[in-house]
Amino acid sequence: MRTYPQSTRSRALRTAVATVAASAALGSVLVTSPAAATVTAAESEPGSCKISDDPSWSGWTDHAQLGATLKQIEKTSKGRVQVEVAGRTTQGRELWAARVGTGPRVLMVTSAIHGNERTGTEALIGILKELGSGSGPETAELLSKVTLVAMPMVNPDGGELNRRINVRSWDQTVAQFPQLAGAPRAWYHSLRGDGIDQPGYDLNRDFNPDLNYVPRASDLPGTQTDAGFFLSPESRAIRDTYVKMRNEKGSVDAFIDLHHMGPCESITGGPQDGKLISVSLDYPPLGVNDGAKYKKQWPKLDQDKSRRYALTVANGIAGAYGEQSRLAAVGRYLHPDAREYAGQGRSAFALNGTGTVLFEVRGQQDDLGQQQRGMFVQSVRTGVESLMTGLATGSADQVDGDDFFKLPDYGWETTAD
């Protein structure tokens, strides 16, 4: 559950944003996003420090609408976009994976693993529509070099309750894994979440770099710095999709995990000093910068690759909006050296050799007005498309990963992704 710092800094947005080129900073635009929403000076700044006492998801795509939309995209694309059910939640909802492109480089993107974090879902819908129906040579070139696998809503049970965690009791877990009978509950299993009296897991702690791992009673309850246990069907579906693509293509080059953060964080230093952050980015939270303590067991870990990919995203957003735009207020996610989350999906996949990037959009869905929502969705879309372009052109492999550390910091953030 999110918490907020005391800062309530907010300003009016004084500039309007026009047509956005997905990756202008990379020198080769393969996908062009539609025009971003225009905001007048009367509008509050995107994701301002407004905190609703009655959170709502009005205007956001829900699970049923997502299913219908993906079906229509698949039909309109004449099979270019392929949609499959990668798994089902405890409550029986489909977990969809949509695939487009035939290229050797694989980008996998997940959204809404925390059920109340939704800009990524909307951004992925837009990308899939564009790639499914685009007829220009740039789109054809991109799809010949990159395969995109998008899972736009991987925690729909939590999403239906507008909360962070999923819905799954410990008894249901033990029923599926009887070897856990009598063991303590996993540390990331909660009896209630966001004020709702239903148990569930923080799915973004339920991953293990051993992709064949089977839950063991002796490993429970575990700690924050440990790998997770694949106790929920959602995390297993994400893992299975990753393994499927790795087996088919030889590797998954990049993985993006789309999240939200608190609405009140401000950039510190540089030309954006004092502006509310739009997006923060991170490489895997696996200790000191090179992840040295993991290398012996997981020699494929390449933290610099993850930083190169995160920097490619930042460069793409800055190039699309202009460095002075408030939407280009991109920073490094709070990442102390001692911050360890080995059970996150991005950590598990990084330990298997994938370059992984965390997106954190400022403000939850109930903090965003309609125009604000459109602008942040566009920013996420631009970032994802920037990495796609960077993988296709090879430019994402050529940037200096150390330059990631030149991205600005921001005010204290109190919510773990």
The N- and C-terminal alpha carbons lie at a distance of 10 Å
Low-confidence stretches: 1-47
Contiguous helical run count: 10
How are strands sequenced across the largest beta sheet? 1-2-4-3-7-11-9-10
Fraction in beta strands:
5-15%
GO molecular function: carboxypeptidase activity
Domain Peptidase M14: 59-357
Protein name: M14 family zinc carboxypeptidase
Family: Belongs to the peptidase M14 family.
Can you give a write-up of this model?
A hairpin with a 5-residue loop joins strand 1 (81-88) and strand 2. This protein starts with 62 loop residues before the first helix and ends in a 7-residue tail after the last strand. It has ten helices and twelve strands. The chain is globular. The strands form three sheets. Strands 1-2-4-3-7-11-9-10 form an eight-stranded mixed β-sheet, sandwiched between helices. A two-stranded antiparallel ribbon has the order 5-6. A two-stranded antiparallel ribbon has the order 8-12. The protein is α/β, with parallel strands linked by helices and 417 residues long. Helix 2 packs across helix 10. Residues 1-37 form the signal peptide. This is M14 family zinc carboxypeptidase. Keywords: Carboxypeptidase, Hydrolase, Metalloprotease, Protease, Signal, Zinc.
Helices and strands, with pairings:
Blueprint: H1 63-76, E1 81-88, E2 94-100, E3 105-111, H2 119-133, H3 137-145, E4 146-151, H4 156-160, H5 170-176, E5 189-190, E6 200-201, H6 233-249, E7 254-261, E8 267-268, E9 279-282, H7 292-295, H8 303-321, E10 330-332, H9 345-350, E11 355-362, H10 370-393, E12 409-410
Parallel strand pairs: 3-4, 3-7, 7-11, 9-10
Antiparallel strand pairs: 1-2, 2-4, 5-6, 8-12, 9-11
